[in-house]
Design brief:
Order of helices and strands: EHHEEEE
Number of strands: 5
Number of helices: 2
Helix content: 25-40%
Shape: extended
Distance between the termini: 29 Å
Largest sheet: 3 strands, antiparallel
Radius of gyration: 17 Å
Strand content: 5-15%
Length: 92
C-alpha cells in the first residue's frame, strides 16, 4: 500500500499475540458437492490447519474457551510446532 513511512514500530510476536484460530478461514460445504469442494480446495493451507489444531489443543489444555482471554503465536519450523501463549494480555 506504500505506507512504509507511517510505520513507527514493528511489534514482535511476544508483544502482540493473537486469539486462538484468529485469521483462519473455514468454509463449510456439502460433502458430496464435488464441484464446490474442488473450487474451495485451493483455499486449503496445510500449515494453517496444523497451527489451528495446535492452538485449539493448547486452549483445551488450559480449559479455555470464548470467554477466556488466551493469546498465542504459533510457530512452525520443519516438523516442529511451538505454541507460546499467555492467559491474559499484558501491556508494557
Amino acid at each position: 500500500m506504500g505506507w512504509e513511512n507511517r510505520i513507527s514500530q514493528i511489534l514482535e510476536p511476544e508483544d502482540c499475540m493473537y486469539a486462538v484460530g484468529q485469521g483462519a478461514l473455514a468454509v463449510e460445504v456439502r460433502a458430496r458437492d464435488a464441484d464446490i469442494l474442488e473450487m474451495v480446495s485451493v483455499l486449503h493451507d496445510s500449515e494453517t490447519v496444523l497451527r489451528c489444531i495446535a492452538e485449539r489443543a493448547f486452549l483445551r489444555q488450559l480449559e479455555g474457551g470464548c470467554s477466556v482471554p488466551v493469546a498465542v503465536h504459533t510457530e512452525v519450523k520443519d516438523t516442529q510446532v511451538r505454541v507460546p501463549g499467555r492467559d491474559r494480555c499484558v501491556l508494557p
